[in-house]
Design brief:
single chain; mainly alpha
Length: 128
């Protein structure tokens, strides 16, 4: 229900709900029980709205901290989606004309920042 809604606020709420469900699950619960919910959360990485994608990435970051075993279930497509979020997209830059000067607003900045924070979290979990 939440992930297929037309309203972005509902989809963001669904992402937060899924994160809390996965995060609050104790270690005695089998990974197979919470994996379908985790896969729905991963699917939101391809959402059309940047706020929903940012929320999904930050949720994955928190899940990586609380349930690191789940990240082994990330597939190649999910990592490609995360890499796409980390790239600069000129379509997300809006130029506002104030007459005497112009201001550029980068709507994708927060999305890229969230993707880089996720990768930083992943690298910190690697024990070399």
């Amino acid at each position: 229900f939440f992930f297929s809604s037309r309203r972005r606020h509902t989809r963001c709420s669904g992402v937060s709900w899924a994160r809390r469900c996965v995060q609050e699950t104790d270690s005695s619960v089998s990974i197979e029980v919470i994996e379908p919910l985790f896969q729905k959360l991963v699917a939101v990485l391809n959402d059309s709205n940047t706020e929903v994608r940012k929320s999904a990435i930050l949720s994955l970051k928190q899940i990586a901290y609380w349930q690191p075993a789940l990240l082994t279930h990330l597939n190649e497509q999910a990592f490609q989606s995360l890499l796409q979020c980390a790239k600069f997209d000129p379509k997300l830059v809006e130029e506002i004309d104030f007459g005497a000067f112009k201001h550029k607003m980068d709507e994708g900045f927060k999305l890229r920042l969230a993707a880089y924070q996720f990768f930083e979290q992943e690298l910190s979990l690697i024990h070399i």
